[in-house]
Structure formats: C-alpha cells, structure tokens
Amino acid sequence: MVDRRPALTVLSHLVMVLGVLIVAFPLYLAFIASTHRPEEIVQLPMPLVPGDYFWETYRAALFGRDTGAGSHAPVARMMWISLVSALVIAIGKIAISLLSAFAIVYFRFPFKKAVFWMIFITLMLPVEVRILPTYQVLSDLHMLNSYAGLTVPLIASATATFLFRQFFLTVPDELVEAARMDGAGPMRFFFDVLLPLSRTAMAALFVIQFIYGWNQYLWPLLATTSEDMYPVVIGIKRMIGGGDAQNEWNIVMATALLAMLPPAIVVVAMQRWFVRGLVDTEK
Fold first, then answer.
1. Measured distance CA(108)–CA(235) in Å, rounded
2. Residue 28: pLDDT above 70?
3. Alpha-carbon Rg of the chain, whole angstroms?
4. Which one of 12, 44, 68, 190 is separated from 241 by 20 to 30 angstroms, measured CA to CA?
5. Residue 126's CB: how many other CB atoms inside 10 A?
6. How far apart are CA 12 and CA 39, in angstroms?
7. Which residues contact 62 (CB under 8 A, 6 or more apart)?
C-alpha cells in the first residue's frame, strides 16, 4: 500500500527540482557563454543572462571562422563525421553481434563453446591494450584519416554478442520446430522470426552503441590528423589552444552544446523502445 502524504509529495518534488537545477546549471552557463563575445565571458562576474551574439557565434561554429587559437574546422563537417561514425558503429555492432549470436546458438560446429568463450574473453581486453597494434595495421592499410579507420576497429562487440546469445536462448524450441515444419531455412528463420522478436533489444542496443560511437575520443585522436576528418569530440579539444593563446570560448561552448544534440535526440526519440528493450522480452 502506497502512503500518500502531501508533505512527502512536496518534499519529493522539491528534491527533484533541486536535482534538475544542479544538473542543468552547467548547461545554462555554457549556453550563456555561447551568446556573448569572448572578452565578455572572462570578465568577473560572468554574465548570467543571454547576450546578443547568439547568431554570430553559432554561425561561426557551424561554418568555421579563421580567428582565435586552435582548430577552425567547421562544426557542421565535424558533426557529419561523428554522425556517420556513430551510425556505422551502432548498426555494424548490432549486425555482427546478431549473426555471431545466431551462429553460436542455432548451429552445430566443432569447438562451439570455445569460440563463444574466445569472444567473451575479449571483454577483458580494453581498447587501450590493443590500440598500438590496431594503429599499425590501419597505418599499413592506409586507412588513417578515413571513415573506415574511424569505425572498423570499433565495430565488433562481445557485449552485444553475449546479450543476443542470452536472448536467443530464451526463444522457445517450438518456434524453431514450427519454422522447420513450414520449410523455412536458417536465414528465413533468422529474418522472419528472430529479427522481429529482437527489435526491442536491437533498439536498446542501438541507443547505447550510438552514444558510445558519438563520444569516442581516444581512438579518433590517434586515427585522425587532418581537420577534414575530425569528429566533433576531437574538434572541441583542437579548438582550445595551449599556453597563453586567446581562445574563443563562446565558440567552444556553442560547439559543446551542438555536440550534445544528436545523442539527446536519439535518447528522447527512442526512449520507449530503449526501456522496453531492457525490461521486456516481448515473446
């Protein structure tokens, strides 16, 4: 039985509003900073109301401007590179993981369990451990500063394979027998039965992997040396000049806010599918 007391309701709402204000205040400061000139931001106290430099700042960020220290690459180009990379990584991880889990669960071949555990053990190998040999391979294949170089080394996922394997193991054997009696081959069973059942799990994984691909920093930092191939996360770092260089913090803050938009849109648009994919087996 739920105990509804007005005082507790008011208190819970106050705590929730306080939490939202604490989380949103840095974003508000970044927005305020993006609407002022660089020299106004560094003054004390910093302005707490929007300025009149909004359009100039965001136009300069999106299309580039040859002023200030650090990189002047247009953010629109960086966001396009980040978008393509995140989509390829997310869709590629899901596709490869689905097929590998399908093979592990429904096919009989020698050393089947050993193959699964070899995939599972790769969870213990973080990117940092294999980053130098991976860089050497991509350099020998002339894949640096390319979309393939940004995405291919990150496209396999033992975690997603494990999750899909566990999901496929819960599919009733009666479905397999029914498909076999209807004359369905393995790939028809995969496309007509398993994929529809897996759509919520795929949606949840897509959200997670899209954000993972969008926020990649270490690997793109090594794999890109040309401004034309900077993802937006690397672009923010390159915009900040070192030492006593005069940074245009309003453009840096505008770029940071723009970089947050695509992941936020994906999470909001797929929130319902994301929750269902985590809690609902839908069988």
1. 48
2. yes
3. 24
4. 44
5. 10
6. 41
7. 74, 75, 76, 258
| DSSP letters spanning 42-77 | TSSSPP-S--S-HHHHHHHHHH--S-SSS----HHH
44-48, 93-97, 177-181: which is most confident = 93-97
User: Averaged over 230-253, what is the pLDDT?
Assistant: 80
Q: Looking at this protein, which amino acid is placed at residue 193?
A: V
* Burial (Cβ within 10 Å: 0-12, 13-18, ≥19) of residue 161: buried
Higher pLDDT, 275 or 245: 275
DSSP state of 120: H
Contacts of 155 (CB under 8 A, 6+ apart): 88, 89, 92, 93, 96
| Nearest-angstrom CA–CA distance, 95 and 89 | 10
Contact present, 63 and 74 (Cβ < 8 Å):
yes
**Which of 83-87, 105-109, 161-165, 277-281 is most confident?**
83-87
Cα–Cα distance, 260 to 170 (Å, whole number): 37
Q: Which residues contact 73 (CB under 8 A, 6 or more apart)?
A: 64, 227, 228, 230, 235, 238
Q: Phi and psi at residue 265, in whole multiples of 5°?
A: -65, -45
